[in-house]
Design a protein that fits this description.
Number of strands of chain A: 13
Strand content of chain A: 15-25%
Number of helices of chain B: 4
Helix content of chain A: 10-25%
Helix content of chain B: 25-40%
Order of helices and strands of chain A: EEEHEHEEEEHEHEEEE
Structural class of chain A: alpha/beta
Shape of chain A: globular
Shape of chain B: elongated
Number of helices of chain A: 4
Distance between the termini of chain A: 5 Å
Order of helices and strands of chain B: EEEHEHEHH
Structural class of chain B: alpha/beta
Strand content of chain B: 15-25%
Oligomer: heterodimer
Largest interface: A-B, 33 and 29 residues
Chain lengths: ~240, ~140
């Protein structure tokens, strides 16, 4: 099973007065093009499309996500979209900037705004999703991780999230926690569960703009350099075979 | 013909043959640059020859403490002419405050002394000094 993971688009960002949407859009389309070219079995968006209160640019970002889903759907590429800390709308509705994608849950594209498990039987893979929680919808990430490993499960496990990683190289993005509730990615629980069950495990997490690997968790990083503390970043995406 | 859209920069196979992952760098990402004080001084001194790699970049400039407005404007114009997409000038570094040791500091003057000194420096001559003295006597300064 081939996977392409991308995160932290932040289509509403501007740097020194320069709106970055066009670059984000161009890069997002490149990831879609790569997913189609590489014939991936799963395209995973790991959160942070845009802030919900960024004004009219939020519509542009939602349009971009919808367009990416449409292109992936057209080539029958399955995609999963999970909410990041910037996506959550804190008005009690438990919605996110990705919520418009709900109407597209057609079988190829699926949106996850709460922890969930998606089974892909043809590849014998279980995808465990750990989105960023709303302030009122905090969940127990460790318990969710333990629940992935049932006795009868013989599937490989792909865990994707938009949570905190202990020991990650942090940029200025990590100081922005105005929304939702911070929660740690359950890497340890997942590792223990996979080891006990003897199952292969692959972990990916968004949230950090600098591409890195932290305690076995792969971070694809953002698609463009958004802030000056990211001058040394090498924007891109993550490809994996599992 | 298939178009190449990205280059692979990191290949990190894990201990077991699978899963494998690779970080793929996107070509053409816009650079962000910061020109520190020494770089600023070099551009002021050398001119456009001291500038490279700014084409399409978003540049942040940190002028040195003593930089004049003209120098800042010059550097900004040079960077823009060299193709920078945007140039943001940060506030100048705070200059060190020169202070004399307490013994060398002149004794503070009273208001009356300051006003009289100013009157003496003007072109009004003794007449102005007398007038100002009279007013100050009247108001009790």
């Amino acid at each position: 099973m081939k996977i392409l993971a991308t995160s932290d688009w932040h289509g509403d960002e501007s740097t020194s007065g320069v709106a970055r949407f066009k670059e984000v859009e161009e890069s997002a389309f490149k990831t879609v093009q790569a997913a189609i070219f590489e014939k991936v079995d799963l395209y995973a968006f790991l959160g942070d499309l845009c802030d919900p209160d960024c004004g009219s640019s939020a519509f542009r970002c939602v349009r971009l996500a919808l367009e990416c889903v449409r292109r992936l759907d057209k080539h029958k590429v399955r995609s999963v979209w999970i909410a990041g800390n910037h996506d959550v709308i804190e008005d009690g509705s438990a919605e996110t900037t990705l919520s418009p994608l709900r109407v597209l849950n057609t079988g190829y594209a699926t949106l996850f705004e709460e922890p969930a498990v998606l089974s892909i039987p043809e590849h014998e893979v279980i995808v465990a999703m750990f989105p960023f929680p709303h302030r009122t919808r905090r969940y127990d990430a460790d318990a969710s991780a333990r629940a992935v490993f049932t006795k009868e499960s013989r599937s490989k496990v792909l865990a994707i999230g938009h949570l905190q990683l202990k020991g990650a190289v942090m940029g200025s993005e990590s100081r922005e926690m105005a929304r939702g509730q911070d929660l740690e990615f359950p890497a340890q629980e997942l590792k223990q569960g996979a080891e006990a069950a003897g199952l292969p495990l692959l972990m990916m997490n968004g949230h950090y703009h600098h591409a890195q690997k932290v305690n076995g968790v792969h971070v694809p990083g953002s698609l463009v350099r958004l802030r000056h503390d990211e001058e040394q970043n090498r924007p891109g995406y993550l490809l994996a075979e599992f | 013909m298939r178009k190449r859209i990205a280059k692979v920069v990191v290949v990190e196979p894990l201990a077991s043959p699978f899963p494998w992952t690779k970080q793929v760098e996107l070509d053409g990402a816009r650079p962000l640059l910061t020109i520190e004080e020494d770089g600023f001084a070099k551009i002021v001194e050398v001119g456009p020859l001291a500038i490279s790699g700014v084409d399409g970049a978003i540049v942040r400039v940190k002028p040195s403490a003593g930089a004049s407005d003209e120098q800042v404007a010059k550097v900004k114009a040079l960077l823009t002419d060299s193709g920078a997409e945007a140039v943001r000038v940060m506030p100048r570094a705070r200059a060190a405050v020169a202070s004399l040791p307490p013994k060398e500091r002149p004794a503070p003057k009273r208001h009356r002394e300051v006003v009289l000194d100013m009157a003496r420096e003007m072109n009004g001559g003794q007449e102005l000094v007398d007038l100002v003295t009279g007013i100050m006597d009247e108001v009790g300064l």
